[in-house]
Design goal:
Blueprint lengths: L16 H13 L14 H13 L3 E5 L2 H11 L7 E5 L5 H8 L3 E5 L9 H7 L5 E5 L8 H11 L2 E5 L7 E2 L2 E2 L6 E5 L12 E5 L2 H10 L15 H7 L12 H12 L1 H19 L6 E2 L6 E2 L4 E5 L5 H13 L5 E2 L24 H7 L2 E5 L6 H21 L1
Parallel strand pairs: 2-3, 2-4, 4-5, 5-8
Antiparallel strand pairs: 1-9, 6-7, 6-11, 8-9, 10-12, 12-14, 13-14
Helix pairs in contact: 1-9, 2-9, 3-4, 3-7, 10-13, 11-13
InterPro entries: DegT/StrS_aminotransferase, PyrdxlP-dep_Trfase, PyrdxlP-dep_Trfase_major, PyrdxlP-dep_Trfase_small
Family: Belongs to the DegT/DnrJ/EryC1 family.
Keywords: Aminotransferase, Pyridoxal phosphate, Transferase
């Protein structure tokens, strides 16, 4: 009998009981706004920022309404102006070029390698085109961060890290988001902690931190932050920085704090599932597994593989056959974006030139979520289905 998978690729685990109790406490006292505090109260949002700063080793942290808002805030805080060019990945999700466009800047796309990371040779060639790089660690893949920072430091490029998919990851032991000037994280439902929506921004730069706090809408209440610079820094920037309100509230912060404390445990669980699927896919004819560098500590909340140089109709047939057996795969080579599968040439608001080497890689990228609601046996079954269906299409040529 043909095996099928009946689980959901979008169902997350329940919010932990500790987080539910913390949320109920906020609802009972009613002080959801981060600056609405009782006498002597520190506030859930300020505590979240303090704890995440400590967790990542950053001096400063700001909690905001979404990961995309964190990205746009970082761009404004480092001084990006309308008309400026900003380097970014050709392989990323729409909120990254969207953040660049939202401040009136122009994305300059850098290629992608078969490792699904930014093409560092292409970055070096384009280093003179912009003074800021918004680096997307797309789908949790970290490039050689040592070489990237060498290129950027030599060219005077400020690096903003999009860590939506790498909260809990590291390169050579340095937490993702801590090599560039700013690290931005997402707390959206499908990320590594879940508050529905939400974002976090970390930096060691006091002026960037102060600008970010003012941009988020602090209304001169910056002294109520626990992971922000001193008042003297705000004095320098407070009348020159606009309020573009996008604060996180105490309800979401209360939900997130217990989840962040459990992050390392969750990372281990994701990686156990990722490794089971990866092992099951190895050796599949026509399928390329993405090898992870030794220096990378990754979080396997999704998995990608390549069907390199396959004809489009064959890729579609393999995806259709997997879907018929309950396995949902996304393809970044589809002519029209489906869900989140848009790419650099999909975003008509941003000029782009053809990138043949990157187009070849993008045309072969297959992507799949790995939620923690999957059992290890589910992962083995999913790998068997993909292996069988991809192998069958490959064999039939």
């Amino acid at each position: 009998m043909t095996e099928t998978f009946s689980g959901s690729f979008t169902q997350q685990e329940p919010i932990p009981d500790e987080a539910i109790e913390a949320a109920l406490a906020v609802l009972r006292h009613g002080r959801l706004h981060r600056y609405n505090l009782a006498k002597g109260e520190l506030g859930e949002t300020a505590l979240l920022e303090q704890e995440f700063a400590a967790q990542t080793g950053a001096r400063y942290c700001l909690a905001v309404a979404s990961g995309g808002y964190a990205l746009a805030t970082a761009l404004r805080a480092v001084g990006v102006k309308p008309g400026d060019a900003v380097l970014t990945n050709a392989f990323t999700l729409a909120p990254v070029p969207g953040a660049i466009a939202s401040v009136g800047a122009r994305p300059v796309f850098v290629g992608v390698t078969e490792s699904l990371t930014i093409d560092l040779d292409d970055l070096a060639a384009k280093a003179g085109a912009a003074r800021v790089l918004m680096l997307s660690h797309m789908r949790g893949h970290l490039c050689d961060m040592d070489r990237l920072m060498q290129i950027c430091d030599a060219a005077g490029i400020t690096v903003i890290e999009d860590c939506a998919h790498t909260m809990g990851a590291a390169w050579n032991g340095v937490a993702s988001g801590r090599q560039g000037a700013v690290g931005c994280y997402s707390c959206q439902t499908y990320k590594h902690v879940n508050s529905g929506e939400g974002g976090l921004l970390v930096t060691d730069d006091e002026e960037i931190a102060a600008r970010a706090v003012m941009l988020s809408g602090s209304y001169m209440l910056y002294e109520r932050h626990l992971a922000a610079p001193g008042p003297e820094v705000f004095e320098r920037i407070k009348y020159h920085t606009p309020n573009i309100s996008g604060r996180m509230d105490n309800l979401r912060a209360a939900i997130l704090r217990p989840q962040l404390r459990a992050l390392s445990t969750q990372v281990a669980r994701w990686n156990e599932r990722y490794q089971r699927i990866e092992a099951g896919l190895r050796g599949t004819p026509g399928l390329t597994v993405i090898e992870r560098p030794e220096a990378e500590t990754y979080v396997g909340s999704s998995i990608q593989f390549l069907l390199l140089d396959w004809a489009a109709d064959k890729v579609q047939e393999a995806l259709r056959r997997c879907a018929a057996r309950g396995v949902e795969l996304k393809w970044f080579g589809t002519p029209e974006p489906v869900g989140f599968t848009s790419r650099y040439d999909s975003w008509r608001y941003a000029e782009s030139a053809p990138m043949p080497a990157s187009d070849r890689v993008l045309a072969g990228i297959i992507d799949m979520r790995v939620p923690l609601t999957f059992s290890l046996e589910d992962c083995d079954l999913i790998a068997r289905i993909i292996r069988a269906e991809v192998g069958a299409v490959w064999q039939n040529g």
